[in-house]
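Session log. Operator J.P. requested a structure for one protein chain; no other inputs attached. Running the standard single-chain path with token output.
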Amino acid sequence: QVHLVESGGGLVQTGDSLRISCAASERSFSLHAAGWFRQPPGKERQFVAAISYGGVNTYYADSVKGRFTISRDSAENTMDLQMSALNPEDTGVYLCASMQLGDSILPKFRDPATYAYWGQGTHVAVSS
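Structure written below.
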């Protein structure tokens, strides 16, 4: 069981940057493929970014490519999402997710059903 807790959300303006974090309870978290999803108001959960175990490979949704960067710190059992050039379409609850230990990040890293563990989310609101 991996317990995930997100932090760092808030209200920002268009063009601003924000960094959100995910803290995991398990020391083996760095061995799990993991990712970030978001859920805009009234919409379904969307894939944002994913990172392989050890942080070697990263993947992004087209809508955030070049603006967001996913990273992880194995020593701290954390995973971050650095977001820049934010716009109102980035508004939503951002959720940290982890796959089961040993699961490959490919090919279904965009599918929420691939992830076994979820945090409660942190809210990001971007005003125009």
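Operator note: Residues 95 and 121 are 4 Å apart (CA to CA).
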